[in-house]
Amino acid sequence: MGFFIEALLGGLMAGMLYSLIALGFVLIFKASGVFNFAQGAMVLFAALSMARFAEWFPKIIGFNSLLLANLLAFAAAMLVMIAVAWLVERLVLGRLVNQEGITLLMATLGIAYFLDGFGQTVFGSDIYSIDVGMPKEPVFLFENLFEGGVLVNKEELYSALIAAALVALLSLFFQKTITGRALRAVADDHQAAQSIGIPLNRIWVIVWSVAGFVALVAGVIWGSKLGVQFSLSLVALKALPVVILGGLTSVPGAIAGGLIIGVGEKLSEIYIGPMLGGGIEIWFAYVLALAFLLVRPQGLFGEKIIDRV
Are 40 and 219 in contact (CB under 8 A)? Predict the structure, then answer.
């Protein structure tokens, strides 16, 4: 039983990180109707910015404080992501208003490849490390309940708690604030939102900035665990099955979808993987998403669209 709880907790912690990245997809889609294929590239670009700024600032300013270096690097990386959001709206989305969905999808695909290449041009293509001071040693929990306790990695536990807190804050922001309500109004009808004075271009900059912030936090967490490298953008794309499962327009769906996929792939790898020869963790999420597309294409929490003629 203790081993099952250990696997379950590992899946839940991984699922919270998937949910965090999936929120970037959901926020942009809700506000602009654009499926942002560049979210994975944004995670990589933000992580590269954070890693390199944390390396450069102590040399430029002349101090050795890890905390101060990380705070300055995080702030600078966030400014970079806001600049990216402004440029995306000014140079891409603002010029493609009311275009077909496939046109906008291809535009975000172009942004993804640009960010991948530009990030490596500016910040380098080596593998960089991000040290935010999170402990990496494991800890045993519930020793009184299970023989030997439950082994949990402290870094994964703290990462999951940070992701959960951020997901909760973003959910409150989207539901309770004036800006969040404006975002929902834009998502429902662009033209109607403009007609009551909601500035579409400003809303898009805000939502891409929020998605950039989500990408930065996710990039710092994944970069701390895996190192900042090109494959980080591929890890971020694991959130694609999450939004398919939970629904492209649902914040709670992104949370539920991430937890389901995180737990599902962890348990299937442990209990089903040996019978299939391993590797199930790589494709489990995508097969589950395909099954949902066949049965419930709008996802668990997505809105079913009915066209009346």
Answer: no
